[in-house]
Design goal:
By secondary structure, the protein is an alpha+beta fold. The protein contains 7 helices and 5 strands. The protein has helices at about 10-20, 25-35, 40-50, 55-65, 85-90, 90-100, 145-155; strands spanning about 75-80, 110, 115-120, 130-135, 135-140. A hairpin with a 5-residue loop joins strand 2 and strand 3 (about 115-120). The protein is elongated, with a radius of gyration of 18 Å. The structure holds FE2/S2 (inorganic) cluster. FE2/S2 (inorganic) cluster binds near residues 84, 86, 123 and 125.
Length: about 160
């Protein structure tokens, strides 16, 4: 299997924007994730060297915050809420329907790298639950059919 070669020079741009102080660790991780789609080990190592922060600390921060992802993600990301309000309104049925349709479990990515499907607990919009984030967009009042249609319409 060929390993993808990462263009670490993109970190130069990021460092120019947010600086290379130790306190810039979180903003750099955020920008790096935005640039690479996730935080590959090579990128974490490079950030550790640039900021003179031990790799263990960089890893600690990257694994502590749920916003950071250390494994590749699909071109699209759906985060289905199964918090209390969404749960009582049928989120579980949506999750089962999506898992069946995609042939993956929540937390996984489809083999064609198109979609990462995750379950989260409260998106802060309980009134429109069951709710989900489809990429950057909140969708509410979901039922299984509506979510399956949304998935079908993703490019
Ligand atoms: S419980 Fe789902 S948005 Fe709050």
């Amino acid at each position: 299997m060929t390993e993808e070669v990462l263009d670490l020079t993109k970190l130069d741009e990021i460092a120019k924007e947010v600086g290379e102080e130790r306190g810039a660790l979180i903003p750099i991780l955020q920008r790096a994730q935005h640039t690479y789609g996730y935080l590959p080990k090579e990128v974490l190592r490079a950030i550790s060297e640039r900021l003179s922060v031990p790799l263990s600390r960089v890893l600690g921060v990257a694994t502590f915050y749920s916003q950071f992802h250390l494994t590749p993600r699909g071109r699209h990301v759906i985060q289905q809420c199964d918090g209390t309000a969404c749960h009582v309104r049928g989120a579980k049925r949506i999750i089962s329907a999506v898992e069946r349709k995609l042939g993956i479990k929540a937390g996984e990515m489809t083999p064609d790298l198109k979609l990462t499907y995750e379950v989260v607990y409260c998106l802060g919009c309980c009134a429109i639950g069951p709710a989900a984030m489809v990429d950057e967009q909140v969708v509410g009042q979901l039922v299984p059919e509506k979510m399956l249609k949304i998935i079908d319409e993703l490019e």
